[in-house]
Specification:
597 residues, DNA Primase, Chain A, DNA primase DNAg catalytic core, N-terminal domain, Dna Topoisomerase Vi A Subunit, Chain: A, domain 2, 5 domains, five-stranded antiparallel β-sheet, four-stranded antiparallel β-sheet, 27 helices, 15 strands, globular, binds zinc ion
């Protein structure tokens, strides 16, 4: 074991990332790093950046990043083992000495998740009220078993005690996000919830979703980002759906766990769900292994429509054939299918609309088309939708569908068609100047942007180990950072500093999740330097600390107790969702006896 990490680092140092990359990409020195055209996406100006200092690469165009191993894997389409073999040979490093630490770490997290999943499913079987809840939601026993659904009891430490009995690695369980370390020791992340294990395509449990059974603030709670689990990459149900996706030739994407499960139960077995996040390019990459055809079936409310349009645009840009399913108003796939309206859902999927048709359909629905003023208003908005369609043929097809609503329809369809076309083309011409006018001079950064900038600067000081890194470590804690992303990044950096007395970026990228990795990689490679003088750095740390104090003081949960001086901000909860703040309060032990709910 001892020599394995050294071996991997040794390979990185011996081969030199610039030498390897140069064999595939023409790179030129630019400042501290090297730049070239990205081999992983089409581009005309170089945004692919390689750093000799960090021994990593990052593309500012497509966001791909990594070390020499991941570069070779991607560019040559190799498995890790194959890339390793090649580079080891090149570096003259004997592979026998080598055992992949990252793999064994992910294996550990997978094993612990598997144990937890078994615990939750066992608990469900012994909890009739939880089973009844699922039955009431229309799920058959077979479905409950197929999706390995489970139950987490209200107790604080049920899983902690189970894992302890099993002799499991509790530190690892904390890294897997199963348990949380609080002032009074470890406690379960998921309590009094229905548990949805999230499996990867190798049927390995990579994370969990939990739906509250009580009236907790947070209806859905997911595992945090880990080395194994990334919300922006994982799709719920893909392990069960991928075969059907290939066979049916398209993937059906829904928004929630229950939507996906009900869809599978009703026979739509090519269905996957996002995990409470918007669709990302990474989701698209994952799906594109199976199909280029996508149908989005989101809630028929305005949030769902907006999310569907945003997701569809992303697939469209990636060159996929994407359609949007129109469900009856007020329904989502789960509610519709639970009412037994399966054929209605099937028809909606079969008749899913292209993006432009979907937008036009919404417009027709929103306006009173029996009224001339309503028709005129609809046509005006429709012209704006059509002005964004690049293809002339596509625009003409849509215009033909609209001519019936035009006031000149009676006079002659051709005249109506010509006038709509003229309106659209006028908008296209004006759009070019209008878009340019919008981009005025940069105004002063908003408070949120200033805070984000300060956090990035401080994190960069840590990554680049600039002077001042010590100050940051002494004045801030990871919890001071404002977003989930910056907190996770800070946590990883602080931990590595503590353990290794410095930062080794390729090593860091191995232990953080994909998203945090991309964030850190981008920070490291970004051209904007960290604040160079002591004063600027002080301003940044002060802003970060003050913002956190403000957040804590204004939080509904903690605010009143802070005002009364029962607790103070330096106590610091670890998370800042309402639920975590409440937990913190309950566990802080500082509340007067009679203040409980
Ligand atoms: Zn790229």
């Amino acid at each position: 074991m001892a020599g394995s990490r050294d071996a991997k680092e040794e390979i990185r140092q011996r081969v030199g990332i610039i030498d390897v990359v140069s064999e595939y990409v023409a790179v030129k020195r630019s400042g501290k790093s090297y730049k070239g055209l990205c081999p992983f996406h089409a581009e005309k100006t170089p945004s692919f950046t390689v750093s000799e200092e960090f021994q990593t690469w990052h593309c500012f165009g497509c966001g791909e990043h990594g070390d020499v191993f991941s570069f070779l894997m991607k560019v040559e389409n190799l498995t890790f083992a194959e890339a390793l073999e090649r580079l080891a040979k090149r570096a003259g490093v004997e592979l026998e000495r080598f055992r992949d630490r990252q793999t064994s770490r992910r294996e550990l997290l997978g094993r612990l998740n598997g144990l937890a999943a078994a615990y939750y499913t066992g608990l469900l079987k012994r909890t009739p009220t939880a089973i009844e809840y699922l039955h009431n939601r229309g799920l058959a026993d077979q479905t409950i078993e197929q999706f390995r659904l489970g139950y987490a009891a209200p107790a604080w430490d049920g899983l902690v005690r189970y894992l302890t009995r099993k002799g499991a690695d509790l530190k690892g369980a904390e890294q897997a996000g199963l348990v949380i370390s609080g002032e009074r020791g470890l406690y379960d992340r998921f309590r009094h919830r229905i548990i949805f294990p999230i499996l990867d395509i190798q049927e390995r449990v990579i994370g969990f979703g939990g739906r509250a059974l009580g009236d907790e603030q947070l209806k859905y709670l997911n595992s945090p980002e880990t080395a194994l689990f990334s919300k922006t990459r994982s799709l719920y149900g893909l392990n069960l759906a991928r075969k059907a996706i290939s066979e049916k030739g398209y993937a059906l994407i829904v928004e929630g766990y229950m939507d996906a499960i009900t869809a599978h139960q009703a026979g739509f077995v090519n269905c996957v769900a996002t995990l409470g996040t918007a669709l990302t390019l990474q989701h698209i990459n994952v799906l594109s292994r199976y199909t280029q055809k996508i149908a989005l079936a989101y809630d028929a409310d305005s949030a769902g429509m907006t999310a569907a349009l945003r997701g569809a645009a992303l697939f469209d840009e990636a060159g996929c054939d994407v359609r949007i399913v129109r469900l009856p108003g007020g329904d989502d796939p789960d509610s519709l299918l639970r009412k037994g309206r399966v054929s209605e859902f099937a028809a909606a999927v079969a008749e899913a609309l292209a993006i432009v048709d979907y937008k036009l359909a919404i417009l027709r629905e929103r306006h009173d088309l029996t009224d001339p003023a309503g028709r005129a208003a609809m046509l005006k908005e429709a012209a704006r939708v059509l002005a964004e369609v690049p293809s002339f043929i596509e625009r003409e097809r849509c215009i033909k569908e609209l001519i019936g609503y035009h006031p000149n329809w009676d006079v002659g369809p051709t005249r109506a068609q010509n006038q709509i076309r003229a309106d659209v083309e006028a908008l296209i011409r004006r759009g070019q100047t209008g878009a340019a006018r919008k981009r005025g001079p940069e105004s002063a950064p908003k408070p949120a942007a200033a805070l984000e900038g300060a956090e990035k600067s401080v994190l960069r000081v840590l990554i680049c180990q600039e002077e001042g890194a010590e100050t940051v470590l002494n004045t801030l804690t990871p919890e001071d950072f404002s977003s989930e992303m910056s907190r996770a990044a800070a946590k990883a950096l602080f931990e590595m500093f503590e353990q290794k007395k410095g930062i080794y970026l390729p090593g860091l990228l191995e232990v953080v999740g994909e998203d945090v990795g991309a964030f850190l990689s981008q920070l490291a490679m970004s051209d904007e330097g960290p604040p160079t003088n002591e004063k600027a750095l002080e301003d940044c740390t002060a802003l970060i600390r003050n913002s956190r104090l403000k957040r804590l003081r204004t939080s509904e949960v903690l605010g009143p107790y802070m005002k009364q001086g029962i607790i103070d901000a330096s106590d610091g909860p670890h998370e800042q969702t309402m639920e975590e703040l409440k937990e913190f309060l309950e566990k802080s032990g500082k509340l007067p006896e009679d203040s409980g709910q």
